[in-house]
Specification:
Arc Repressor Mutant, subunit A; globular; 8% strand; 101 residues; two-stranded antiparallel sheet; mainly alpha
Amino acid sequence: MHLDMPGKPCTGLTGLMGLTGRTDNARIIKDVGINVGINEDAGARVLEYLKENPKASARVVALALGMSSRQVERMIARLKGEGLLLRQGSNKSGTWVALEK
């Protein structure tokens, strides 16, 4: 395994993972603020859709909102973790319940 040496140009992912003395990951941290706003909006859109369509699956939500299924699954997990969404019943025939916080 090749590790970059401090003071030398950063190559590969080792510089991004903090394995060297360099701080090239400032670029990655800077872009996080942009994604946070997008994710907040996406979470609100998912929650609103599930309020109107409580029997919808993640796949159906993704198709309706123009998102990937995985992105919707992450949003649902985050909303459940924040106590804004609850699943009642089974995974196959249950319904989503939006909770007021």
